Amino acid sequence: MEVVPKLIVFSAPSGAGKTTLVRHLLKKKELNLAFSISAASREPRDGEQDGKDYYFLGIKEFKNRIRHEDFLEFEEVYRDQFYGTLKAEVERLWAQGKNVIFDIDVVGGLRLKKKFPERTLAIFVKPPSINELQIRLKKRKTETPEKIAMRVAKASTEMATAPQFDVIIKNDNLTEAKARAEQLVAEFIKKPLTQDEDE
Ligand SMILES: Nc1ncnc2c1ncn2[C@@H]1O[C@H](COP(=O)(O)OP(=O)(O)OP(=O)(O)O)[C@@H](O)[C@H]1O
Ligand SMILES: Nc1nc2c(ncn2[C@@H]2O[C@H](COP(=O)(O)O)[C@@H](O)[C@H]2O)c(=O)[nH]1
């Protein structure tokens, strides 16, 4: 039987802990995961590397790639800030036989689930509260107060999408959230696919 690589999607409002959980899972070699490096139109943060954290495209180049239909999904997540999954990126990782893990916004996450319903596990990361998101983003020190406000302003709409995901992981206690994520992903990866998909 052909082994079909899976898609593991982590979505949530900004500051909920997607990146933290994804980085934790990537250390678990037995899960055979590879990170889908998204394209982004924003500037890199201190310490972020092009081709590792994101493919940092300028806005012009990003729009050019949209016109060429290079994206599996893309979204203007915040005003003038585009993010997207390149078709070529997912194909590259599938060719290596890897299960692909995504850290993407809720709209993008649900789009991928719709495109690949059987082979995707769509996980929503739920923070304890919207106020806690603000506290975490302030502590992370990567965003200006204006950008934090913009991200938090979107959080309640994003929280409302949680029931559309396959599963919700509460991220109040990080140790427990990591353990739950590991358990869910390991189970899903082992599960045989029930049907072929028209992709
Ligand atoms: N359970 C937790 N308790 C306290 N702090 C946490 C917890 N989980 C993550 N954090 C911290 O909260 C901050 C936000 O986490 P992270 O960057 O993983 O969020 P994110 O959902 O990826 O956000 P973004 O969408 O902005 O990239 C980080 O500084 C991280 O260390
Ligand atoms: N729809 C998509 N959303 C994405 C993608 N890559 C990242 N993101 C999401 O954007 C926000 C902001 O990210 P940040 O790195 O600036 O904090 C966050 O929700 C990411 O998950 C993507 O390819 N498609």
Topology (elements, then pairings):
Elements: E1 7-11, H1 18-26, E2 33-35, E3 38-40, E4 54-56, H2 59-67, E5 71-78, E6 81-86, H3 87-95, E7 99-103, H4 106-115, E8 120-126, H5 130-140, H6 145-153, H7 155-159, E9 167-170, H8 174-190
Parallel strand pairs: 1-7, 1-8, 2-7, 3-4, 8-9
Antiparallel strand pairs: 3-6, 5-6
Helix pairs in contact: 5-6
Bound molecules: adenosine-5'-triphosphate and the ligand Nc1nc2c(ncn2[C@@H]2O[C@H](COP(=O)(O)O)[C@@H](O)[C@H]2O)c(=O)[nH]1.
Residues 14, 18, 38, 42, 73, 75, 77, 83-85, 103-105, 107-108 line the site of the ligand Nc1nc2c(ncn2[C@@H]2O[C@H](COP(=O)(O)O)[C@@H](O)[C@H]2O)c(=O)[nH]1.
Structure characterization notes:
- With 199 residues, the protein is an alpha/beta fold.
- It has one domain (7-190): P-loop containing nucleotide triphosphate hydrolases (Rossmann fold, 3-Layer(aba) Sandwich), CATH 3.40.50.300.
- The protein is 40% helix and 22% strand.
- The protein is built from 8 helices and 9 strands.
- It has a 5-stranded parallel sheet, sandwiched between helices. A 4-stranded mixed sheet has the order 4-3-6-5.
- Helix 5 (130-140) packs antiparallel against helix 6 (145-153).
- It is globular.
- The protein binds adenosine-5'-triphosphate and ligand LQESDW3C.
- Belongs to the guanylate kinase family.
- ATP binds at residues 12-19.
- Its main location: cytoplasm.
